[in-house]
Amino acid sequence: MKIGEFLVAYKYISSDALNEALKLQKINKDARLGEILVGNGAITKEVLSDCIAHFMEVNKDADLGEAKEWLNQSDVDRLISKYVR
Q: Of 54, 70, 63, whose CA–CA distance to 11 is shortest?
């Protein structure tokens, strides 16, 4: 399951918010999904971090390299140091 699908499935964001963010991501390929969602006000950065931690707990085999598509590198590093042992 991709992070966007996860956010919708667990009702962190609406499917409309995800679709809008994905449209914007297609326009700006360097933009990260999480940053777009935060920028649009669909979710706060703090809640997004919690969601990603929840995602990693539920999806134990998740590729953490994909996290770079959701957040900037410093946020990814912080999450990895916090949740990966």
A: 54
Q: Give the residue carrying structure tokens 């410093």.
A: 74
Q: Is 54 helix (H, G, I), strand (E, B) or coil?
A: helix
Question: Is the distance from CB of 31 to CB of 25 less than 8 angstroms?
Answer: yes
How many residues belong to the chain?
A: 85
Give the span between the Cα atoms of 82 and 36, in whole angstroms: 23
pLDDT tens for each residue of 33-62: 888 999 999 999 888 888 888 887 777 665
The single residue listed with the structure tokens 């777009």 is: 36
Q: Per the structure block, which two tokens stand in for 82?
A: 């916090």
The pTM is what? 0.69
CA 81, CA 39: separation in Å to the nearest integer? 25
